[in-house]
């Protein structure tokens, strides 16, 4: 097929995105895998609250190298391309339990920060986190006495600050952050 025709040819992820976002996500992962010569496929399932993209194949290993940089990048791309299409469900990418391990590590890190804040009274900040990760930190510390959390920064540099709760602070709004994300 001539280049001009290929450029105008419809791609599965673009054509069916609105009609069937699950099929479009599978097609997107398949195209990505083929272009990178990876053995990688995606299964997409829906629950009431989530659209879960589960990755399979030996190509997962490359995504998990160097602190899962590739997986985080793929998650970012999928969020940008498809999160709007699956609303109100949340789009979640799963690969060999990485998310569960990351969530647990983030909760443990939040508690370490809170302990340090309580020990010396100095506020601490997390590294930049996406909204889901910030929420995990807020929830992990919501019931911890003596600390409060709030988000600071803009865009991809948004972080959570953990600080000592003072008598002047508003009461915790169920998440220790006054509802801020």
Beta-strand percentage range: 15-25%
Radius of gyration over all CA atoms, rounded? 20 Å
CATH H level of the largest domain: which superfamily? K homology (KH) domain
Helices and strands: which structural class?
alpha+beta
Number of strands: 6
CATH class of the largest domain: Alpha Beta
Provide tags for this entry.
three-stranded mixed β-sheet; 181 residues; single chain; three-stranded antiparallel β-sheet; disordered N terminus; 2 domains; 48% helix; Ribosomal Protein S8, Chain: A, domain 1; alpha+beta; 6 helices
Describe the model.
The protein has 181 residues and is of the alpha+beta class. The chain has 2 domains: 3-96, GMP Synthetase, Chain A, domain 3 (2-Layer Sandwich); 99-164, Ribosomal Protein S8, Chain: A, domain 1, CATH 3.30.1370. Helix content is 48%, strand content 18%. The chain has 6 helices and 6 strands. It has helices at 3-8, 12-15, 21-35, 60-86, 98-120, 131-141; strands spanning 41-46, 50-56, 90-94, 124-125, 147-152, 159-164. The strands form 2 sheets. Strands 1-2-3 form a 3-stranded mixed β-sheet, covered by helices on one side. Strands 4-6-5 form a 3-stranded antiparallel β-sheet. A hairpin with a 6-residue loop joins β5 and β6. α5 (98-120) packs across α6 (131-141). The radius of gyration is 20 Å and the shape is elongated. The chain starts with a helix and ends in a 17-residue tail after the last strand. Residues 1-15 and 174-181 have low confidence and may be disordered.
């Amino acid at each position: 097929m001539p280049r001009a025709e290929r450029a105008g040819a419809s791609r599965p992820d673009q054509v069916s995105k609105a009609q069937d976002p699950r099929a479009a996500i599978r097609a997107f992962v398949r195209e990505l895998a083929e272009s990178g010569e990876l053995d990688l496929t995606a299964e997409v399932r829906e629950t009431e609250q989530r659209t879960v993209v589960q990755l399979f194949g030996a190509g997962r290993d490359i995504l998990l190298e160097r602190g899962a940089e590739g997986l985080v990048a793929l998650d970012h791309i999928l969020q940008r391309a498809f999160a709007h299409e699956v609303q109100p469900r949340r789009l979640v990418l799963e690969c060999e339990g990485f998310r569960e391990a990351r969530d647990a590590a983030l909760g443990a890190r939040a508690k370490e920060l809170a302990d340090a804040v309580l020990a010396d009274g100095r506020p601490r900040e997390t590294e930049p986190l996406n909204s889901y990760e910030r929420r995990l930190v807020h929830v992990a510390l919501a019931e911890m006495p003596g600390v409060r959390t709030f988000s600071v920064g803009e865009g991809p540099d948004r972080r959570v600050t953990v600080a000592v709760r003072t008598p002047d602070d508003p009461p915790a709004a169920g998440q220790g952050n006054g509802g801020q994300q």
